[in-house]
Amino acid sequence: MSEATTDGAGRGTILVLNGPNLNLLGTREPEKYGTATLADVEQLAKDTGAAHGLDVECFQSNHEGALVDAIHAARGTALGIVINAGAYTHTSVAIRDAISAVQLPAVEVHITNVHAREEFRHHSYLSDISKAVIAGAGILGYRFAIEYLAGLQASRD
Ligand SMILES: O=C1C[C@@](O)(C(=O)O)C[C@@H](O)[C@@H]1O
């Protein structure tokens, strides 16, 4: 897991999780996912967090259990989770249960509009347990998700 940034003002940490194949952003089907890399996405997330006084910790894995472990580790350390679970969105009860278990506000993000794609992408195991779902906004979805969580946190401060 990458180091938490220190450019926030200590208001808290948001965990940004990316699932399988998102490490290939930039070269993976660029006509669908664009040309921004995972590093670009993570920088955007960190910059957005910093603008709101929040640290952003980023983690990507192609392995379901590693994503579950990262969600567990967020309990007690993060104020919210932004998750693009990739294909696990449509298959993983384990990731769903992990998010429910840690009781942190989660925002589900998809770069593409999954509802305009194949039928099997229309169902998500995460949507009904997420505070918000953002799909089809490209990598800006990550920015919107962090802004949403920052607003949620501000309303609780
Ligand atoms: O890997 C991905 C990426 C995705 O989550 C997106 O960001 O648009 C959409 C998923 O259906 C797909 O399996």
The rough form would be described as globular
Return the CATH topology.
Answer: Rossmann fold
- Name of the level-1 CATH class: Alpha Beta
Structural class: alpha/beta
Let me know the number of strands. 5
Low-confidence segments? 1-8
The residue-averaged pLDDT reads 94
Strand order of the largest sheet: 2-1-3-4-5
Q: Report how far the terminal alpha carbons are from each other.
A: 28 Å
Enzyme class: lyase
Subunit structure: Homododecamer.
Catalytic activity: 3-dehydroquinate = 3-dehydroshikimate + H2O
Active site: 33 (proton acceptor), 110 (proton donor)
Fold and architecture overview:
This protein has helices at residues 30-33, 38-51, 64-74, 93-102, 140-156, and strands at 13-18, 55-60, 80-84, 106-110, 132-135. Strands 2-1-3-4-5 form a five-stranded parallel beta sheet, with helices on both faces. Helices cover 36% and strands 17% of the residues. It has one domain (1-86, 133-157): Rossmann fold (3-Layer(aba) Sandwich), CATH 3.40.50. Residues 21, 84, 86-87, 89, 110-112, 114, 121 line the site of 1,3,4-trihydroxy-5-OXO-cyclohexanecarboxylic acid.
